[in-house]
Amino acid sequence: MKRDPHIVFLDHRQELLTWLTRRLHAREQAEDMVQELYLRFVQHAAGHHVDDTRAYLFQMARNMLADLGRQQQARATDTHSHDEPLMLAVPDTAPGPEQVAAARSRLRQLAACLEQLPPLTQRIFLLNRVHDMSYQEVATQLDVSVSTVQKHLTRALCHVTEQMKTH
């Protein structure tokens, strides 16, 4: 039996809003995007079957974020492409060679610290801290409880913090 797409969307609305708010750093913009997601999803669901609605909705959200990024980049390029003196006045904020070398060294230290951890703890750390997934998203992907994610992440952070202090 096919569920009502409006109800299906509402099941995931809060999680989508939280996820988008974290990425956009603007609640109002995230709410607008969730509304647009709702409209697109209901329209699509009217004519198509979606097996995994959560995955489908989050993929739609990622696509919308990518579109937004491209639009912002295009606007920035259009605004400044004919204004050469403005571009010359922008200070160079790129890191120098010393900063790059120091950052690479710290990254190698972090990788070495992570290799000392059990594989599940490493995976949880990377999904949460590198791929910016929520505890719930990590738990769902790895088929573990949120509590397990929290415990492993705490262990990883304590270990990394301690190891990075000594180097």
Structural notes for this entry:
The chain is an all-alpha fold. It folds into 2 domains: 5-80, Rna Polymerase Sigma Factor, Chain: A (Orthogonal Bundle), CATH 1.10.1740; 105-159, Arc Repressor Mutant, subunit A (Orthogonal Bundle). The protein has helices spanning 5-24, 27-47, 53-80, 84-88, 97-115, 119-130, 135-142, 146-166. α1 runs antiparallel to α2 (27-47) and α5 (97-115) crosses α8. The chain is flat, with a radius of gyration of 21 Å. The N and C termini lie far apart (59 Å). Residues 86-90 have low confidence and may be disordered.
Walk me through the topology.
Blueprint (H helix, E strand, L loop, with lengths): L4 H20 L2 H21 L5 H28 L3 H5 L8 H19 L3 H12 L4 H8 L3 H21 L1
Helix pairs in contact: 1-2, 1-3, 2-3, 5-8, 6-8, 7-8
